[in-house]
Each structure stands twice: as structure tokens, then as C-alpha cells.
Design brief:
The protein is of the alpha+beta class and 359 residues long.
Length: 359
């Protein structure tokens, strides 16, 4: 049985108190929300914090509030299970409801939080292994091991995905991140030094498997605000080997605002799990001023899928995942158009038949 290393536990009563503890202990402290990602990482010795700052008893970090303008404010410690069952989220932001409901398993969603999923660690075939396995390959730059290894010796360490690279190529594994980016959401960050600041979800991520979050290590994510836009629809499609539990190995989050004439007035599409951050698709501009026709879907998905250049550092063959992006991009838009569940189901099954051929 793998056990966590020794640590001190601090149960904060507020976000401000938690931020103060983080400031006092610096990189030796980490935030604990649901713990569904952090605790397994601690057992594998990928993280060895001296202090865990729990937000479980912190006031004001749970629940959903709908404002007069229709926007939703979601506490960062709201569980994914509660959000997946919230009829207001399903009605106003169906893509977000689908994204949080697709995370892991029911048991995990009952503990996992929205803030935790936004900040979930990046993943890689070489990183997400037990300590002994990683020790056998001399660890990697993202988790260099307890001996200090290359980092302590002044070396950069090795990324086993691309050994000649100076950066880590672990991939983003958040489901809610791409969807909230597509919805134009913002998050509130709290720290002792800077107080509160609001940033777009799109500014929360960096394209590096180690520096994948642009929030400071002393900052705590406290709430998420999701705007409501009349005439807008959203969808989330996720590729994984099993129908539940698995992290995404490629995902598509789409948001489209329709004009009264039936043409696309605004659109945002985001790819997940193809690089170290959710990737906004600039080709979404192709959709503007057009009706959602099969011809438009084909043109858009062909050009947008070129951005999906995943490396061979997670499940399935990289070339097949890249090819599948085209089908998923079109599928998400077909769902927004209102295609029947039967036709969408046929498309999804056709894609997964290809997955079964890969073993």
C-alpha cells in the first residue's frame, strides 16, 4: 500500500486565512480541496509538501448563485457532483454540465471540486507512475525525485517525451478548463500580498507541463463567474478509452452565439488535452456570419484539427488522436445545431470503433 509522506495539516476557516498560511510557508505548502488528484500524487511522491492547507471548512467557497443578468458565480470548492446535478447549470450552460459530469467516477466527483479540476496537474506516461518506476528511468524534470538529482546538481533534468527539449511536455488534463474558456468565464484569485484579482480562465494557463498555471503559488482560486449570453449554446465532447473514470486524451469545448437570422454571431472553440494548456482555436472565425451547415462544419473541422498535434505521451496513438479531432470538432458543432442524439451517437461510436482497433 502506498502511503502519503508526513505533513502538517492546517484547516483554514477562510480563503484569506489559507492564503496567509501559503504566504508564510512558501513552496513547502500546498492547497487541499477535494484531494482526488493531490493525494494520489503525494502517495507516488510527485508532491511532498510539508504543510497541507485544507479549504474544506473555509466559508463562502461552495454553492452556485445566479445574478440578475443570468451570470453564474460558482464557489471553487463546489463539488463536481453537485454541479452535474444542478438543473440551472444544465439549462444555461449544458457544455459545462457535460464537462463536469464526465470527470472520473461518481465517487470521485462527490469529493472533487471545480477549482481543483481547473488546477489539476498535467499528465504524462512517464510522470504518472509510482516512485520506483520513475526511479528506474532516473526520474524526469517534472518530478526529479527526493535525492535532488539533476535539479540540485544544476542540470535541467530530462523530459522523456522529448529528451532534447528544455521544457516539460506533460498534457493538460482538465475537463472544466477548456469548457470555461469557451464560455468566456473568469476566476477570482486571492493572496496575502496582492489581495483579490479577477482573470479570464484563458489567462490561467501556461503552455508548459511544469509551469502550467499562471497563478502565483501563494494564490487561491476562490470562485468562477460564468456569463450568460442570450442565444448562446455550448457542447463538450471528450475522448477517452473507457466511458467513465479516465482523464481526457482529447476534448472539444464549443460555444456558439446565434443571431436571430440563424447565422453565427460569435463563437469560441477550445481543444483540451492536446498540449500543456487548453488551446483556443483561432479558426473559430470561420464560423462567423455563416449558418451551421455540413459544408461549414467540414471546412472548419479540417482547418481547426491541424492545431491538434498531440505527442505520444498519453493513451492512444498520437496520429489517431490527431485524426479524431476532426470528427469531434464537427460533432460538437452538430450537437449545438440540434442534430438528433441518434446521429450524434452513430458518429461517436464510429470514432470509438477506430479506438478498439488500436488495442
Amino acid at each position: 500500500m502506498m502511503r502519503c509522506p508526513s505533513f502538517r495539516y492546517h484547516a483554514a476557516s477562510s480563503a484569506e486565512e489559507a492564503a496567509s498560511v501559503l504566504a508564510d510557508h512558501g513552496p513547502r505548502a500546498m492547497v487541499l480541496a477535494g484531494g482526488t488528484d493531490l493525494v494520489p500524487n503525494m502517495k507516488r511522491r510527485q508532491h511532498v509538501p510539508e504543510v497541507l492547507v485544507s479549504l474544506r471548512k473555509a466559508e463562502g467557497l461552495r454553492g452556485v448563485t445566479i445574478a440578475k443578468d443570468g451570470a453564474a458565480t460558482i464557489g471553487a470548492c463546489s463539488t463536481l457532483a453537485d454541479l452535474a446535478l444542478d438543473a440551472r447549470i444544465a439549462a444555461g450552460w449544458p457544455g459545462l454540465s457535460r464537462a463536469v459530469a464526465s470527470v472520473a467516477s461518481p465517487l470521485i466527483r462527490a469529493s472533487a471540486t471545480l477549482g481543483g479540476n481547473l488546477c489539476v496537474d498535467t499528465r504524462c506516461n512517464y510522470y504518472n507512475q509510482n516512485h520506483e518506476w520513475r526511479q528506474a528511468i532516473s526520474f524526469c524534470m517534472k518530478a526529479p525525485g527526493p535525492e535532488g538529482t539533476a535539479v540540485a546538481e544544476g542540470k535541467r533534468g530530462t523530459c522523456w517525451v522529448a529528451p532534447g527539449s528544455s521544457r516539460c511536455w506533460a498534457v493538460s488534463s482538465t475537463d472544466s478548463g477548456p469548457m470555461l474558456m469557451a464560455l468566456g468565464a473568469t476566476v477570482t484569485l486571492v493572496s496575502k500580498a496582492r489581495g483579490k484579482r479577477d482573470v479570464p480562465v484563458s489567462a490561467l494557463y501556461g503552455d508548459d507541463g511544469m509551469a502550467y498555471l499562471r497563478k502565483g503559488p501563494d494564490e487561491i482560486l476562490t470562485e468562477i463567474r460564468v456569463p450568460a449570453v442570450a442565444g448562446a449554446k455550448s457542447a463538450y465532447w471528450k475522448l477517452r478509452r473507457r466511458g467513465s473514470f479516465d482523464f481526457p486524451v482529447m476534448s472539444v469545448a464549443a460555444w456558439v452565439k446565434m443571431a436571430g437570422s440563424g447565422e453565427v454571431e460569435d463563437a469560441r472553440v477550445v481543444l483540451g488535452a492536446v498540449t500543456s494548456r487548453p488551446l483556443e482555436v483561432p479558426e473559430s472565425a470561420i464560423l462567423l456570419g455563416s449558418r451551421l451547415t455540413d459544408k461549414v462544419f467540414e471546412e472548419f473541422s479540417e482547418k481547426a484539427s491541424a492545431l491538434a498535434r498531440p505527442l505520444d505521451n498519453t493513451d492512444f496513438q498520437a496520429a489517431w488522436r490527431r485524426k479524431t479531432a476532426r470528427s469531434f470538432l464537427a460533432g460538437a458543432l452538430r450537437e449545438i445545431r440540434g442534430d438528433s442524439r441518434e446521429s450524434l451517437g452513430v458518429l461517436a461510436k464510429r470514432v470509438m470503433c477506430g479506438a478498439s482497433c488500436l488495442g
